[in-house]
Hints:
Elements: H1 4-20, E1 23-25, E2 39-46, E3 52-59, E4 70-74, H2 83-90, E5 93-95, E6 107-109, E7 119-123, E8 133-134, H3 144-161, E9 170-175, H4 178-192, E10 203-209, H5 215-220, H6 222-228, H7 234-244, H8 256-269, H9 292-301, H10 304-309, H11 339-347, E11 351-357, H12 365-374, E12 379-388, E13 391-399, E14 403-408, H13 419-430
Parallel strand pairs: 4-7, 4-9, 9-10, 10-11, 11-14
Antiparallel strand pairs: 1-2, 2-3, 3-7, 3-8, 5-6, 12-13, 13-14
Helix pairs in contact: 3-4, 4-11, 7-8
Amino acid sequence: MKSTPKLLLLLLFIINHHVDSGSIVKFLPGFEGPLPFELETGYIGIGEEEDVQLFYYFIKSERNPKEDPLLLWLSGGPGCSSITGLLFENGPLALKSKVYNGSVPSLVSTTYSWTKTANIIFLDQPIGAGFSYSRIPLIDTPSDTGEVKNIHEFLQKWLSKHPQFSSNPFYASGDSYSGMIVPALVQEISKGNYICCKPPINLQGYILGNPITYFEVDQNYRIPFSHGMALISDELYESIRRDCKGNYFNVDPRNTKCLKLVEEYHKCTDELNEFNILSPDCDTTSPDCFLYPYYLLGYWINDESVRDALHVNKSSIGKWERCTYQNRIPYNKDINNSIPYHMNNSISGYRSLIYSGDHDLVVPFLATQAWIKSLNYSIIHEWRPWMIKDQIAGYTRTYSNKMTFATVKGSGHTAEYKPNETFIMFQRWISGHDL
Length: 435
């Protein structure tokens, strides 16, 4: 009987250690049978008191997890849950597009998961995004620079709890608004690796899809993109160029000619699906809509059985929302231009893959090409098509700063529009091969 307290203490230690390190998920409601891959979910506490709890989904590589690269995936927004990447862009599961009937929506396996060749951490950030939360009221408004430091701390703590992945090549990745966070994060990790007494992160590079980089410039390139895609007439294009002088969306109220022309531009484009101009602009609650699975996602992830299976802290969050910061949570966008971070990361010698769906109106490929050109690195491999079998899947170019730019033909703002092509592009690049 005297040994009982010691046994209880040991048991508590084991339980606490298990919770801190994450919990293995073997089954998910909506998916038949055990998961055909290893999924871990959990929280990592940030700050001295660890009041900020960042939620993650970790999926081991299906090939060789001990040696394959470790990726961190951040969804955009800011404030969109990373499970949108997992279930819609590059994960091993997807929601089956079937009319909602009141039961838990179904999940199916995918053929295009990046986890076939990489370990991936899908991270919900900032605080309030997905299942990440704070135990106490926030004192400071979440911000770009604040999130960079939080994510860096997350990675350090996650790797200390998963030391078997410390030597794996590490890549930061994401799309859309992550274009403001990932380059700064790479620089932060790079600097942190030189600080004494902390195990270095084996940083090798980064990957960004349709990244927001310099919002005003990104936005202005919508005009030449729209002209090139035959969305506006030659006459309107020439007039708007002449009278707006390259500034189309932050117009001086006194420039009435420009304002009128911009109004004409909106008449031509406002009814488009700006995320992919080839796709219908329709209500996601319609089963005929390409994005109907987003509607199903809300029902799936808010089901109590799903949240239990994912080991979500019951007291942490109410109704899950796909993107929170766009509507109701304050956020300080204090990085307005991420080009200097790209420059610093290039100087430091990190590899990068920057890809653009070529039918995205939100961040047109022309804007991405422009800031890459502004880095002023020489071209190593000239513009050429990259192929899948005997078909052109997009176009690519490589630069002397180890940066590869690629378009994905027919794709939009995120990889979900062409997941198979994006997967093949990623698989070739991460393996060090030409696209």
